[in-house]
Specification:
seven-stranded mixed beta sheet; five-stranded antiparallel beta sheet; 22% helix
Amino acid sequence: MTSTYIETGGHVRVYDAAVRTHHEFPLGTYRVHFTSKEGFSLIKIDDLTVGTERVYGGRDRKVDKIFRSYALTDRSLGVMLSGDKGIGKTLFLRMVAEEAREQCLPVVIVSEDNDGIVEFLDTLDECLIIFDEFEKVFTAGRRGGTEGGNRQNQFLSLFDGLSSVKRIYCLTVNDISDVSTYIVNRPGRFHYHMRFEYPGPDEVRQYLIDQAPHADPDEIENVALFSRRARLNYDHLRAIAFELEQPDALFADVVEDLNIKAIEPSTYRIEARFPDGKVWSDEVEMNLFERGDVGRTFELRHATRSIFASFVPKDLIFEPDGSIFVPIHKLELLDDDDEEPEVYPTTVNLILVAQASYGFSL
């Protein structure tokens, strides 16, 4: 039996014949592992792949942009992906990992926090290093004075990109407010901050056409209209597509039973247009999905005057351009002297804020 002898720091360890040595970082996908006895190591895991799943929103162009920029720079490149859960960050991460391996870059996933992690990562050769849900694994220590202080700032020197070895650092974030201020808005550390928004009506429609080919086109259109009223992520759409593939499925019935009911309000921009062309606008948080038969009233204020408009969500009319026409049940327009002006707005519209029309953008 042949043994392999490896010496590090004056210590010689003996391994059996299964041990292999490499002069270069072997191509593959690895997870960082730590034990108090052996320290840090890399465990080989299955590659992150996209498979046959179709990608929506032109995100392949974003992947090309990342690797084109990486090829042109002589330092490390940071990429931050932010947005709510279920809107495509993980899929995009898989696309980046797949392209990294195509370019012969090993992929390293960091999923736990241990002292010395920065020093270990800086010993690695050129690779893609992924931090999934970065702000959860490495807390910023702001809310309630979390024990251990800010665990994100330990990476600042690594993210500065001045190491003798080039790497790509890619992290996903669900809540950007929980990320260190020394990382956000610092292009020297993270050159790209790609924000993921909820799919708009066009993406919803195309997704369902692809994933539910036997669904009634009218029901697909109902889902697209509904996406202007409540935010739908890809987890929601996957469940809806499965249901609409069933014979005689109606979206009105599907949405009653699925676990997709919005529990938080969405942000809408209210616009009131007057005959002289003036527009009053403001943003308001409402949940138009729950209790659609219960009346709502909002105030739209401009200088010394206010509009009080009452409506019932189930009566809303969804326009082809993505806006929502509001049939007003009661409208009052008063100034600060409680006098009623003669001129009233001709239309009042709602527009759901932060849909795909605002972009998957830099």
